Amino acid sequence: MVPRSIGHSHIQPVLSTHQAVSARKPRVRGAFHIQNVNAYDSRLKTWMIRFHGVATKYLKNYLGWRRLLERYRELTP
Question: Which pTM does this prediction carry?
């Protein structure tokens, strides 16, 4: 998820596909589990707080940076 200040029209170019996962049963759709989605959303929002807002123009870069950090956690101090 992205911060609420970002409109959905700006999200589409960043995300490749959208997977809706209901909070009701079933909570799993392939690799997407509601708890995984919520955990990622929480980590992303916590990480983005330090930037005091992100320009939509650079959102793709910030999400790529965060994806890199998530993928290679052992490399971060």
Answer: 0.56
The rounded distance, in Å, linking the Cα atoms of 65 and 15 is 14
Contact between 4 and 14 (Cβ < 8 Å): no
pLDDT band at 6 (very low <50, low <70, confident <90, very high): very low
CB atoms under 10 Å from CB of 2, counted, come to: 20
Give the pair of three-digit tokens for residue 67: 């994806």
Distance from C-alpha of 45 to C-alpha of 17, rounded to nearest angstrom? 20
Quick one: 53 exposed, middle or buried, by C-beta within 10 A (0-12, 13-18, 19+)?
Answer: exposed
